[in-house]
Structure formats: structure tokens, C-alpha cells
Amino acid sequence: MNADDPQSRAAQWAAARAGDAGAVAALVREHQRMVYSLGLRILRNRAAAEDLTQDVFMQFYQQIATLDTAAHARHWLCRVATHRAIDQLRRRPPVSTNEDVLSLVDETQAGDPLLAKRLRTLIGDLPPHPRAIVVLRYQEDMEPAEIAELLNMPLNTVKSHLRRALEVLRGRLA
Amino acid sequence: MSRDLEQDLRQALKPVDPTPEFTNRLLAKMAAERRAAVSSRRPLLRQMAVAASVLLALGLSWRGYEHQQRARALQAHADLLRALAITNRSLDHAYQTVHSLDADRVHGG
Question: What is the CATH number of the domain that holds A43?
Fold first, then answer.
């Protein structure tokens, strides 16, 4: 099945909604990177990110019949993962271990790995909402308007959180 | 030091995959959930079949009861007609007796 072909995607989506295990597994493999990375970057704890990913996909599986399209599913997963991560951060922030910090360094990616690690640590020090906004903006490449819609926030609030977060990061890197 | 902070942020926040072991565990858990959902639907189907049988039995009993009631009504109707016929004959007989007695009294007296 060609995942880029709209007809194939529609067929795969219909099969997943009907409970086809293979189609559901394909959806999980397609979206788990986004969900897991949101959890990892916002919670800064690998185990907490795995728990969040599992909870989000189990909820997704239970509610798949209520989602209309595959695009809607991606948006739903992004929204639920982000809200759950913010809620968890506010309720009981997970503690980052050395292993978690090391796991955030991906030596295969281009650029300066030490700078990347420092940035991730600084992002992890931001309050929950600015942290989530920075992650959605630069991990998922979402526009501020999309982030505002996803977080149920006024656009200007998102923009000001983003601006202030970038100022803080610049100041701490200086 | 960062020349382009936004570019550096994109590099730092590149999405990463969970471990294959985690993915396998997740898919196994979802499969278990599906099996549980299917098996929990089976007793429901059984209960629905029992409920349908009870409803069918009740419907048939009601029809039998109605049929019985109708037969009794017809029987009662026939009994009533028979009673009326007997009453009619008795009245006829009494009338003729009284009439013959009157005639005897007129002719005899």
C-alpha cells in the first residue's frame, strides 16, 4: 500500500476504523514519533514520555470511530499529547535522570550536539505553556495560529509566549 | 554561540523515534485491548439473544391468550343464544298453556 496515495490512505484509515490490526499498527508507526517526541521534549523524561505515548494511543484506539479522517487523527493526537503533557507537568513534573538527559542528545543529527543539548535543557526550564509552544513551533513546525487553536489560546498570547521564550533562551545562551 | 536561534531550535528539537521494544509493547497492548473488547461483546450478544427469546415467548403467549379469550367469547355467545332459545320456547309453552286454560274457561263457563 502506498502511504502517499490519497486513496490508499483513505482505505488504510477506513480499515483502521473497522479495527484492522495491520492498519492500526501502520497508524501507530506513522504517528508515534510525533507523539513520543512531544512527550519527551515537554516532560524531559523518557519513561514519562513512553507512558504518555501509550496512554494517548490507547485513548486514540478507543475513540478512532469518532475521528473522520487521517488528517483529523494526526491533529487529534498532537492536541491530546500536548494537553496531557502540560497537565502532567503542572500536576507532577517528572524528574529528569542523567540517562534522560543523555538520551536527548542525538549524535547522528547535523549541527552542534552540545548546543542542541543545552537548548533542550533550557527549553525544559521554561514554564509548561511556553515550553509546549516552543516545542510545537520548532519540532512540529506549526504556525502560531495553529498552536493557538490547538491550545485554545488567543493568538496574541501564543505570540507573546513565543517572543518571551526566545528572549529567555537568547539571554541564557549569551 | 547561536547565529540563528530558530534554526538551532529546529535542529535541537528534531523528532525522535521511541525504541522498537516500546513500539512492540504498545502494539501488543492495543491487540490485547481489542481482544478484550471482542470478548466483552460476546456476553452482550448472549444477553441480547436471551432477551430476544424471552420477548418472542411473551409475544407467543400473548397471542395464545388472545386466541383462548376469543374462543371463550364465542362459546359464551353460543351459550347465550342457546339460553335465549330455551327461554323463548319456555315462554311460548307457558303462553299456550295460559291461552288454552282461558279458552276452556270461556267455553266451559
Answer: 1.20.140
Count CB-CB contacts under 10 A for residue B51: 10
CA angle A36, A152, A45 (to 5 degrees): 25
- DSSP letter for each residue of A21-47: HHHHHHHHHHHHHHHHHHHHHHH--HH
Contact flag B9-A106 (C-beta cutoff 8 Å): no
Predicted ipTM? 0.84
Contacts A62 to B, Cβ<8 Å: 33
Residue A50: inside a domain, yes or no?
Answer: yes
Query: B29–A58: do the CB atoms touch at under 8 Å?
Result: yes
Contacts of B40 in chain A (CB under 8 A): none
Total domain count for chain A? 1
pLDDT at B1 over 50: no
- Rounded to two decimals, what is the model's pTM? 0.71
Instruction: Give, in degrees to the nearest 5, the angle at Cα A42 between A84 and A99.
Output: 120
Cell match 530558530: residue?
B6
